[in-house]
Design goal:
The complex is a heterodimer of chains A (about 160) and B (about 250). Chain A has two domains: about 80 residues, GMP Synthetase, Chain A, domain 3; about 70 residues, no CATH class. Helices cover about 20% and strands about 20% of the residues of chain A. In chain A, the strands form two sheets. Chain A has a four-stranded mixed sheet with strand order 4-7-6-5. Chain A is elongated, with a radius of gyration of 18 Å. Chain B has about 250 residues and is an all-alpha fold. Classes of the chains: A alpha/beta (about 160), B mainly alpha (about 250). At the A-B interface, loops of A face helix 2 and helix 6 of B.
């Protein structure tokens, strides 16, 4: 790993201003989709971004927003590469992202994708409102590809759950 | 057309046409949750298709994913015949999805070892989504099969009607033969046993009867389609055909 140059550190700072268009409380770094930032000098800046889901419509908006933010800061030539491998996983959400999701009313992924328990049982999804461990899945799919619909059986509120993938 | 390109169209067109079919449900599914589910699955499939078609266009050295999706004629599409079959009722859509999801699980599992890095990358990504699709479709097959008398009857009827299209999954087209010889793709026949086992487990739980296998294979993968594909394309391609190059 090459140490990040001051330009690259500057780019990382700027990327923290770019929100996920579907869950705008998270920025693209917290979402875990930024894979690399490279200062390619005369060839400009390259940013590697992974899609969360192959068909997620937010991907293109994210790419355009990254370009716009960097250009606004004076970086004229910006290339955004789509990086598929290794595939994005919800394990890459940062700790601060998990906390923000909870505050926003979305239950963060309950466990790691690699957890062996995932093979045998449904995860315990805590209600983001009342913290009850008693919830049930209403639907595997919700308003965006990355979420499922749940209902809290204690406070009876429906809520969204950020899926483990 | 190189074997790699034809093969990517076989897999990509299957995802594209199924995505288009599922899109027909938007606003019409039995419940909001199912509406969202079918749309989400369609979106994942569309993502796979975009990736594969844009790579196929690169291999071709001209055109784009959009040209391949919107300007090809029916005989140039290489999708499985199963995915172009009409939606029918919700049970039929679910059965079609279940049969294809199980096939994609086996396919993507093996494609991760493809000698073509683009395919291996996509397979590693797509299999994670396909597991969710299969959990949804197989869950519904069980719920409907082991449900009421009417739901059981409907889903068994759908299974009986669609089963004849499944044999095509395991009979290699010329493109698949060449791709297998080059290590780009698995031999389709090698998927059959695991697919069958997966299907049988669910059908048993759903109290459904597995239909008898048929010897005849449909030839969607060779570009010979049922009449349904041209109607589907007429709708999907209308805008680009009528207003070439139109953009939002």
């Amino acid at each position: 790993m090459v140490a990040a140059s001051s330009v690259e550190r500057e780019i990382w700072r700027l990327l923290a201003d770019v929100p996920d268009p579907e869950i705008p409380i998270l920025n693209v770094i917290e979402l875990g989709v930024v894979r690399y930032v490279r200062d390619e000098h005369e060839r400009g800046i390259a940013v590697g971004v992974s899609p969360t889901y192959t068909g997620c419509p937010a991907t293109e908006v994210i790419q355009a927003s990254i370009k716009a933010r960097l250009q606004q800061a004076g970086f004229e030539t910006v290339r955004v590469d789509s990086v598929l491998a290794p595939p994005w996983t919800s394990d890459w959400l940062t700790d601060s992202a998990r906390e923000k999701l909870r505050e926003y009313g979305i239950a963060p992924p309950a466990e790691s994708v690699d957890s062996p328990r995932r093979l045998w049982s449904e995860p315990t999804v805590r209600c983001p409102r009342c913290s009850s461990q008693h919830s049930e899945r209403v639907s595997e799919f919700a308003s965006t590809p990355c979420k499922a619909l749940y209902r809290c059986t204690s406070c009876l509120e429906p809520f969204e759950y950020f899926k483990c993938i | 057309m190189t074997p790699a390109m034809s093969y990517q169209l076989t897999v990509g067109d299957t995802s594209l046409i199924l995505a288009q079919r599922l899109g027909e449900w938007i606003g019409h599914a039995p419940a909001l949750e199912e509406d969202l589910a079918l749309a989400n699955i369609a979106l994942d499939l569309l993502g796979q298709a975009r990736y594969l078609l844009s790579h196929a266009a690169q291999l071709q050295g001209s055109g784009s994913e959009d040209d391949l999706a919107f300007l090809r004629d029916p005989q140039d599409f290489l999708n499985l015949s199963l995915v172009e079959q009409p939606n029918g009722d919700f049970g039929q859509t679910i059965v079609r999805q279940f049969l294809v999801d199980a096939w994609q699980l086996e396919l993507f599992e093996r494609l991760q070892q493809s000698s073509e890095p683009k395919l291996a990358e996509l397979a590693a990504k797509a299999i994670k989504e396909t597991r969710y699709h299969f959990r949804f479709s197989s869950g519904w097959v069980v719920r409907l099969g082991d449900g009421t008398e009417e739901s059981h009857r409907r889903v068994q009827t759908a299974l009986d009607a669609l089963w004849r299209f499944t044999h095509e999954m395991f009979v290699a087209s010329p493109a698949e033969q060449e791709a297998a010889a080059l290590g780009i793709a698995p031999d389709p026949a090698s998927l059959a046993a695991d697919w069958s086992r997966r299907i049988d487990e669910v059908l048993k739980e759903a109290t459904l009867k597995r239909p008898a296998d048929v010897a005849y294979a449909w030839h969607g993968k060779r570009g010979q389609h049922s009449e349904h594909l041209s109607r589907l394309l007429a709708e999907m391609q209308f805008m680009q055909r009528t207003y070439p190059g139109a953009q939002w």
